[in-house]
Amino acid sequence: NDLPKAFEMLKTAESQILGLRNTPGRNVQAWSSWAESNVALMKSIYLMRTGKWDESFVQIKISVEKSKEVLPMLNLFENDKQKMHAKNNAAFIMANMVNQQIQVGQLIPAESSLRDAFKFAKANGFNENHMFAFDLLSANLFNGNGHFQSSMKYIETAQKMHMSQGYLKTNRRWMRTKSLELTALSGLDQWDRALKVLQESYEDTKG
């Protein structure tokens, strides 16, 4: 919440990235693009918080492009864990772009960004955890557009994926699916089902 301090930290991060570029090493470019993607993301969030939406979207687009630049350089990383985190980073940033567009009511651009994210994820071998996040974004977008039945399809897919991966129903991401489900069911005027979901969610988290 301390925006002046956040601004100073962003300036410090940008300065450190300039220093990183001049560091010798075969994987410097990959780490540099990764760092630039995260700084651009933080700048976009900062600008959004200060009401500068147009500038914010410029930065989030830069962030997405920088995160994509990293993926062709995955072999420069030392281990599979670093490679996985690079993909996680790209998925997280693309999801943030869609979320920002939804927040300001840009539903058509958000839908386009989400389609691009799906295509990119499939082309680059993203795993089920990444697709889970995109399913939730799809559900949120369809809820925002009033297409509640379409939203339910993505919610059900995400919930099945969650359970098949062995996660508990007390997990925060499960609760996120339930929140979206309540919105969709309310939009469909299926109040009995919505009440049942609410009761089940309470039982899942009780104790």
Question: How would you summarize this macromolecular structure in one to three sentences?
Answer:
With 207 residues, the protein is mainly α. The protein is built from nine helices and no strands. Helix 1 runs antiparallel to helix 2 (28-49) and helix 2 packs parallel to helix 4.
Question: How would you explain this protein's 3D organization?
Answer:
The protein has 207 residues and is mainly alpha-helical. Helices cover 80% and strands 0% of the residues. It has helices spanning 3-21, 28-49, 53-70, 80-103, 107-123, 128-145, 148-164, 172-187, 191-205. Helix 1 (3-21) packs antiparallel against helix 2 and helix 4 (80-103) packs antiparallel against helix 5. The longest helix is centred in the middle third of the chain and has 24 residues, at 80-103.
Mind sketching the topology for me?
Blueprint: H1 3-21, H2 28-49, H3 53-70, H4 80-103, H5 107-123, H6 128-145, H7 148-164, H8 172-187, H9 191-205
Helix pairs in contact: 1-2, 2-3, 2-4, 3-4, 4-5, 4-6, 5-6, 6-7, 6-8, 7-8, 8-9
Fill in the keyword field for this structure.
about 80% helix, 9 helices, mainly alpha, single chain, globular, about 210 residues
Counting DSSP H or I runs of 4 or more residues, the number of helices is: 9
Output the structural class: mainly alpha
Largest sheet: none
Order of H and E elements? HHHHHHHHH
Assign a percent range to the helix content. over 70%
